[in-house]
Amino acid sequence: MLKSIVVSLGVACVATSAFAVDTAIEKQLQKLDPSERMEQSCDTEAMKQIADKKDGFKPDKVIAYTFSDPDMGENSIKAPGAVFRSKGDWYHLTYDCETGPQHIHVRSLSIEIGSKVPREDWGPHYLYD
User: Fold this and answer.
1) Pairwise CA distance, residues 38 & 43, whole Å
2) Tens of pLDDT along 62-121?
3) Is 8 or 41 the better-scoring residue by pLDDT?
4) Reported pTM
5) Cβ burial 57-91 (10 Å sphere, 16+ → b, else e)
6) Is residue 116 helix, strand or coil?
7) Residue 51, Cβ neighbours under 10 Å: how many?
8) Minimal CA–CA distance to 82: which of 39, 41, 129?
9) Residue 60: in which H helix or E strand, if any?
10) 67 neighbors 93 (Cβ within 8 angstroms)
11) More confident residue, 16 or 38
């Protein structure tokens, strides 16, 4: 009996979520109001997924509201006018994200990377180097 419990605990520890949140990030997220927390959780996960795509992107910033306001649900955000920055350039991004009720852990996220934002569009949309 004890052996099966130990094996089960080992499997549970290995089978972590693909959307696991680092403890330090979680502490910072808890300081935010719920809607800001959800947006930041989704932005952070979007950066991780973009980096994991192996398309040469090295994202260091995601903004959900650059080209249009996101559609906020109770535990979800649809950001059709988002952007991300990689290696000094900005790119259009669309994402749909669902979080848990505390808005820290991302349950699902789909992203679509768009074209590079022309530099002449940076100023009007408050994008920066």
Assistant:
1) 9
2) 999 999 999 999 999 999 999 999 999 999 999 999 999 999 999 999 999 999 999 999
3) 41
4) 0.80
5) bebeebbbebbeebeeeeebbbbbbbbbbbeeebb
6) strand
7) 15
8) 39
9) strand 59-63
10) no
11) 38
